[in-house]
Amino acid sequence: MTLVGHEDAWRQWREGLSGERMHHAWLLAGKKGLGKMHFALAAARELVAEPGIPQPEGPHPDILVLTNLPKDEKEEKKRDDGKDYELARNIKIDQVREMQRRLTTRPTLGARRAVIFDPADDLEKNAANALLKSLEEPPAGTFFLLVAHRPARLLPTIRSRCRTLRFPLLDETAVAKILAESAPDADPATRAAAIAAAAGSPGAALEFVAQELGPVDALMQRIVQNGDPDFALRGKLAAEIGARPDRERMAAVLDLARATLARMAANAPRAALPAIVDAHADIVRLSAQAPTHNFDPGLLVMQIGGLLASAAAASSLADA
User: Fold this and answer.
1) Where are the domains of the chain?
2) Whole-angstrom Cα distance, residue 287 to residue 223?
3) Which of 89, 151, 201, 249 is the least crowded, having the fewest Cβ atoms under 10 Å away?
4) What residues contact residue 114 under an 8 Å CB cut-off, 6+ apart?
5) Would you state the pLDDT for residue 314?
6) Where are the alpha helices (DSSP H) in 113-246?
7) What CATH number does the domain located at 7-166 have?
8) Please, which residues have CB within 8 angstroms of residue 299's CB and are 6 or more apart in sequence?
9) Digit-coded pLDDT (tens) for 231-283
């Protein structure tokens, strides 16, 4: 299946695959929720398949995927029991070293092996340095696919050794179609809010619906429109988000706040733009820090609300 917006990436990948010397490392860059991991898995299967050799339907022995593991033994047990579990914040160096040990052996079914990092943004520092060594001296027949939501977080030396495939944002019509197919039970108001908040990412729109962010979005809209001088709306926002939001919910909330400010900037008076842009930059910074910092959830939500309120105040002054 080819997802919407992947056409050019497939063209470039298949041109490389049919060439005399396939590049050994590919950076799949674009906003979270565009299907880059779906592309990576499908592309890896094309890479390792050989005529006359049956390919397994399920996990492939010549496709290695490095991603965030359960954060500890307790969460690992939850995973093994089929329960929801919390992920580690980073891809660890031990995972990279285990991958490198695997690369000393020959591929199982053919002459090629693919290694996928999802997301490569989450490599801890030592793990990134270890990966760099493999990229500098790739084993014969080994190809790397690095999924990156924020490529700037990767080491420049890693980026420089990769050929980049960029995944574009989709227009609202395309996002609406995907949402209608994948979340047909969502009510029209929630669907409309999800499309607006997603800013071109169908994955973000689906996460909006899954996390039931409609009430959160409504409160954020009230804050940027009216401000929050008595902190009452920030209190309601914290209550709606929950006292102990998991990593996925907090990431979705931060993404929603960023999208809220981006929409605000598109229609704001010129005089208000510097304050809105500063608030947006602070939300982006918090989004980058949240996976690796132990923020108190309540304080983080109040900080988000404060940034939204500061943008509202600047807009009010500009209108006066």
Assistant:
1) 7-166, 211-319
2) 20
3) 89
4) 43, 44, 47, 48, 62, 63, 64, 142, 143, 144, 145
5) 78
6) 125-136, 156-159, 172-182, 188-198, 202-210, 214-226, 232-241
7) 3.40.50.300
8) none
9) 999 999 999 999 888 888 988 899 899 999 998 998 888 888 999 999 999 99
